[in-house]
Backbone:
């Protein structure tokens, strides 16, 4: 198989404040891989190998494999064969396991791709691959000629063979479980007791899938989030368009899922256009019934969740403000696309572990056995995506020394850049 060019960047950053005592706790930031196309979700194999998906950069539309985007002002989404699944061993060696997989992205920027979306392992070490879609599923097999999108596969990591386990695009097209627009974009999944639980950010649903070949077992829609229209802030869409006259979907748009320490499922949401700030929720989901319960609120555009061994929950904010304020559809960055990593302790206390400082438009997070959180960074962009690691418990020396090291590290980064928990309660155009 063709191996994709790959850059390993050995950059570490530490940030501390002068007021912090000697040997205080801070977080560290490292770039593990760079130059990626729309990297998405991450998983570790039993031997410590890190696996990740790249949704690719789509196509140029010359072959006619394009559909209107449901979330980007109807910029065309065009298909191409450049999605991938790769691995990085503990010694830093990178290998592409699968290449030339179908990718669907905004043309010509390659932004907001759907394609290889997530990879996970069951209790026997078998690997499974989820593919996204981000569009009307009725166009998948016809216009796009890409029947491999919108599915869950069992994958042979040696041969690269794929066996279809479930077809979410077909299910959405036939059943439309949430009763709103017919859109499908399987975004992430987790495995518990050899059942896969898949969140569909286009269909606003969660599925349970038997990995024994029994297929889709259950499905449930996430609840809408009504917000008074006069509280929604809209972009300027030009003199001919009054954004307040656009339909408001109130859809949830689930994006991240992880098994909680008590055996339930934890799901994060992105929210609907115009992506209101401070309105994204975290859900607790019963794995048997798929019933949902809001356990935390007040976030902005969440795209992932992970637990540490102590039961602390970490959630990932894609961008800290409504995305349209910082990046134009089509990938033109006009503002600050900084995101945040937020810790929710078992008692519900929240603290921001990392804010900006290289964390940008991230999507997908997992906890490593080394105590670091591995994240897909710049996950909606082609050519500049990264896999990063944030250590939430890094110990730093005295403030004066720490600040010096930080400045040096930041300088190096600039040069190289060229090329059981308790209930957590505090107090829509689709996501890509």
Residues:
């Amino acid at each position: 198989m063709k191996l994709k060019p790959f850059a390993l960047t050995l950059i570490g950053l530490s940030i501390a404040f002068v007021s912090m005592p000697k040997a205080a706790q801070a977080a560290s930031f490292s770039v593990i891989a760079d130059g990626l196309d729309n990297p998405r979700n991450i998983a570790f194999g039993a031997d410590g190998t890190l696996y990740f998906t790249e949704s690719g950069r789509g196509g140029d539309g010359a072959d006619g494999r394009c559909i209107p985007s449901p979330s980007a002002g109807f910029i065309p989404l065009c298909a191409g064969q450049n999605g991938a699944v790769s691995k990085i061993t503990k010694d830093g060696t990178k290998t592409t396991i699968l290449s030339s997989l179908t990718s669907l992205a905004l043309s010509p920027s390659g932004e907001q791709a759907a394609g290889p979306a997530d990879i996970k392992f069951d209790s026997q070490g078998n690997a499974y691959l989820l593919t996204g879609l981000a569009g009307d599923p009725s166009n998948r097999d016809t216009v796009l000629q890409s029947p491999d999108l919108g599915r869950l596969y069992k994958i042979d990591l040696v041969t690269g063979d794929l066996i279809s386990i479930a077809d979410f695009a077909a299910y959405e097209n036939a059943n439309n479980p949430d009763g709103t627009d017919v859109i499908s974009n399987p975004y992430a999944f987790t495995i518990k007791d050899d059942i896969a639980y898949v969140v569909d950010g286009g269909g606003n649903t969660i599925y349970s899938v038997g990995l024994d070949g029994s297929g889709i077992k259950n499905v449930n829609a996430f609840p809408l989030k009504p917000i008074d229209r006069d509280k929604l802030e809209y972009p300027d869409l030009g003199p001919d368009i009054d954004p307040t006259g656009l339909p408001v979907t109130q859809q949830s748009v689930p994006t991240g899922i992880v098994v909680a320490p008590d055996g339930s499922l934890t799901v994060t949401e992105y929210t609907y256009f115009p992506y209101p700030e401070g309105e994204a929720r975290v859900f607790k989901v019963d794995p048997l019934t798929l019933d949902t319960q809001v356990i935390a609120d007040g976030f902005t555009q969440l795209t992932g969740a992970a637990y540490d061994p102590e039961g602390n929950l970490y959630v990932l904010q894609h961008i800290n403000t409504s995305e349209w304020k910082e990046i134009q559809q089509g990938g033109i960055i006009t503002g600050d696309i900084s995101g945040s990593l937020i810790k929710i302790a078992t008692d519900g206390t929240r603290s921001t572990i990392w804010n900006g400082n290289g964390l940008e438009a991230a999507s997908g997070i997992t906890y490593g056995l080394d105590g670091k959180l591995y994240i897909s960074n710049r996950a909606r962009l082609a050519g500049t995506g990264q896999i990063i690691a944030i250590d939430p418990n890094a110990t730093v020396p005295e403030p004066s020394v720490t600040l010096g090291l930080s400045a040096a590290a930041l300088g190096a980064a600039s040069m190289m850049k060229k090329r059981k928990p308790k209930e957590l309660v505090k107090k829509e155009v689709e996501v890509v």
Summary: The first helix runs from residue 168 to 175. The chain has two helices and 28 strands. The chain has a mean pLDDT of 86. The two ends are 28 Å apart (CA to CA).
